[in-house]
């Protein structure tokens, strides 16, 4: 009884997870987020409208699928309320289609302030956090001080809130950082009332009962493997486990209930925020990629750093996650180039290696590229069938499948739901 598939990012986030979840949702009964919080921005496009979701699973637009926010997620009621209000504006019956775990942790206004103060104090060494309070909230979770959704329904919630805020205020005295808590706190308590419209459930029971009843669950990851707290480019990472194992802890799903793991990657590579990025392009090619791919953050609007695909990093991500199927996104963006470069190895301290070393910040780490003929000038954005894939793109796909030892079952050629080529048939 393996009722769960997992879908997650293999790079530094923003691979296109939201789009693929939306495309796959009709095949699932439940879509469940297992980690992260409003640092995520998952974009979906259909009927000429673009939606960006932060905390709410990307299955919310399909009326026959339930959506669950798992215990591993951290929630900012203010951002959550905005999402709910926007969905209601599109006629979505959110209180029927969405459930929230009682064990999910709350992001307090002071968590956000602590995030900003801590980043400012780091100066040049800053993580490039989205400043949504993610780090401080997970710190309070593991420090056993956090407040959870279920606590909202207890009589002493206000006292516990006040005690935690006092603790945060005393921590803030150590920073040279000015803040104004009052307005934000007012909005936060107002938003709590909206949050209470969404049923709070014992999500581990809900999800396991669903699996037992033969329902199909898709666990939706946020961020990407290279931002994982354990296996990412530490310390330039987020504060949760973004990998397949995060599904087990973030939803209460046992490992032997997991079936397929769908790994999402861009046909090139991007990163937003600070930290090492071996294949980053600082030249015109990088700028062309950014413009053509519209690589600007869905949550913060920051320009994303761009570079060529990095196979050693992808192989690592496939290994850590146990990926069984791949989705390659944004192939259309590469139509502007004569040749496509693929990083197959690195040189590192005078040697050629095919794995990520411990210190990927080491300045001697340089990518080694193989050049592959591109499909310049061919517009892919209207393609929907494997038979229409141009020969050079097919060669690129097959080369990657060979190197990564994993089938690419979805090729995305545009942001819209419809701009998706399913390759399963080819592989059977
Ligand atoms: P996520 O965080 O992994 O869900 O990804 P984001 O939504 O942050 O970023 C992906 C961006 O690429 C969004 O703007 C999507 O609309 C867009 N996108 C997704 N797939 C494709 C594609 O195949 N081609 C193009 N051109 N854009 C895409
Ligand atoms: P989705 O789900 C891309 C990055 C931030 C920063 C680091 C830590 O849309 O792919 P945090 O706010 O978590 O403390 O930031 O992680 N980051 C993301 N980058 N996509 C995301 O989410 C991200 N969530 C966090 O830019 O470098
Ligand atoms: Mg994103």
Q: What are the bound molecules?
A: guanosine-5'-diphosphate, 6-O-phosphoryl inosine monophosphate, magnesium ion
Q: Helices and strands: which structural class? A: alpha/beta
Overall morphology: globular
Strand order of the largest sheet: 9-7-5-2-10-1-11-15-19-20
Q: Please estimate the helix content.
A: 25-40%
If helices are DSSP runs of H or I spanning 4 or more residues, what is the number of helices? 13
Radius of gyration: 21 Å
Strand runs, count? 20
Low-pLDDT residue spans: none
Fraction in beta strands: 15-25%
Largest sheet entry? 10 strands, mixed
Distance between the termini: 23 Å
Average pLDDT confidence is 96
Characterise this structure.
The protein has helices at about 15-25, 75-90, 95, 110-120, 135-140, 155-170, 180-195, 205-210, 245-250, 285-290, 310-320, 390-405, 425, and strands at about 5-10, 30-35, 40-45, 50-55, 65-70, 75, 100, 105, 200, 215-220, 260-265, 270, 305, 310, 325-330, 340-350, 350-355, 365-375, 410, 420. The strands form 5 sheets. It has a 10-stranded mixed sheet, sandwiched between helices. Strands 14, 16, 17 and 18 form a 4-stranded mixed sheet that branches. α2 packs across α7 (about 180-195) and α4 crosses α5 (about 135-140). The mean pLDDT is about 95. The chain has about 425 residues and is of the alpha/beta class. It starts with a strand and ends with a helix. Bound molecules: guanosine-5'-diphosphate, 6-O-phosphoryl inosine monophosphate (IMO) and magnesium ion (MG). Magnesium ion binds near residues 13, 14, 40, 42 and 298.
